[in-house]
Design brief:
Distance between the termini: 70 Å
Oligomer: single chain
CATH class of the largest domain: Alpha Beta
CATH architecture of the largest domain: 2-Layer Sandwich
Number of strands: 9
Largest sheet: 7 strands, mixed
Radius of gyration: 28 Å
Helix content: 40-55%
Structural class: alpha+beta
Strand order of the largest sheet: 3-9-8-7-4-5-6
Shape: elongated
CATH topology of the largest domain: Endonuclease, Chain A
Number of helices: 9
Strand content: 15-25%
CATH superfamily of the largest domain: Endonuclease Chain A
Order of helices and strands: HHHHEEHEHEHHEEEEEH
């Protein structure tokens, strides 16, 4: 069962995995024998064997006028997948250039559930490893969406060496941790500025999170708008930092 599940995880169907295992046990056999061993119709078995051969999981020899099918050795299959992965890795820069061009057309994306939002943040942990992004927001409003998850997310973000600069509302002081190991630089806005939303400003998009929106969050992936948000953040950061120093 474990062997069969491993084959399925490589992209084989349930029946393809069964036929491959039967070939391994037989050490080479005609389709009629493999059909008998697996209980699959002979006509279906022929189609399965054709698919397995095309995928590189089997090969065929003629012996005494009969087609004898053999299972490809597992290490050769592994090598085949390694070559495919290597080929795909070589194409990643090209795919990413396409993705960047598509970003121009993406516009807005709506996130309706906590599960979708958490998936977005899990992608941030991968995409922004060893990088930095900026945040304007309310720590209590952000955390209250799912306190356990977001407290844990801060720790995982630090483990990924992701730095953040945060402009937070004054009422965020109690909810905002001060541990330097979290790689956060925090400035607090004057008390008169209150809001319940949070803006995460990335290189190519802005995430607006608010429990009060009809959707839980909105992703803006329009370069010109992202540039505006970045500039606004830098302007506010410099102003708040200057005000703090003057005080």
């Amino acid at each position: 069962m474990y062997l069969k599940n491993s084959l399925i995880s490589l992209g084989l169907s349930d029946q393809e995995a069964e036929v491959y295992v039967a070939m391994m046990k037989q050490g080479g056999a005609p389709a009629s024998v493999l059909a008998r061993d697996t209980g699959i119709k002979r006509t279906t078995t022929y189609a399965i064997l054709k698919n397995l051969t095309e995928k590189g999981f089997s090969f065929v020899y003629f012996k005494n006028g009969k087609r004898i099918y053999y299972a490809q050795k597992p290490h050769k299959i592994a090598s085949l997948f390694e070559k495919k992965i290597q080929s795909f890795n070589e194409m990643i820069p090209f795919f990413e250039s396409i993705d960047r061009s598509q970003t121009q057309k993406m516009g807005l994306r709506f996130i309706d559930s906590k599960g979708e939002l958490e998936k977005f943040y899990e992608e941030v942990l991968i995409d922004y490893r060893n990088k930095e992004y900026c945040i304007i927001g309310s720590a209590p409003a952000w955390e209250n969406i799912d306190q356990d998850y977001f407290k844990n997310f801060r720790e995982k973000r630090a483990e990924a060496k992701i730095k953040t600069r945060l402009l937070l509302t004054a009422d965020s002081k109690e909810a905002s941790p001060t541990d330097n190991q979290l790689l956060r630089k925090v400035l607090f806005l004057p008390k008169k500025y209150t809001f319940k939303s949070t803006l995460d400003i990335f290189d190519d998009k802005v995430l607006i999170v608010s429990p009060e929106l009809s959707s839980l969050a909105v992703v803006i992936a329009i370069p010109t708008m992202v540039d505006i948000f970045k500039s606004i953040f830098e302007m506010l950061w410099d102003h708040v930092a200057l005000t703090k120093n003057d005080a």
